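Student: Please help interpret what follows.
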Amino acid sequence: MRTKVGLWIDYRKAIVVTVTEKGEEIKEIISEVEKQPRRSGDSPLKGAYESHQVPADDSLQRNFTGQLNIYYDAVIASIRDAESILIFGPGEAKDELKKRLEGNNLSGSIVGIETVDKMTERQIAVKIRHHFAESR
C-alpha cells in the first residue's frame, strides 16, 4: 500500500495528513517546547535578585533542545513508513525536521519542503491532497 504523508510543522505543533488508498487520516502532534527559552527569576527593575535564582542560559538551551528532540522523534515515528513526505511550515522547524530525517536515513522519502504561513487543518489537508494528486 502506498502511503503519502504531508505535514505542516512549527515548534508548537505538527499536523500530519496521511493519504492511502483507503482514505485520509489527520493527526495532530502537540509539542511541549517553549517558543523561546527565557530566563526566569525576579527582574532587576523590581529589586535585587541573586544570580543563583536565574538558570544559566546553557541549561535553558539544553532543556529546549531536549524538548525539541522528543517532539521531532514523535513526528518521525508517525511518518516513518511513508513512501513520500511533503513538509511545510512557517519557520525553522521544517528544516530541522528534514535534518533529523536525513539522520534517520529517511531523506529519500522527502518530495518537497515549502515555506508557508499558518494554515487551518482543512487548508493543510487540501494542499496535501492537491500536491499528491498532481504528482501521480
In short: The chain has a mean pLDDT of 85. The first helix runs from residue 57 to 79. The chain has one domain: 4-36+55-134. The chain has three helices and five strands.
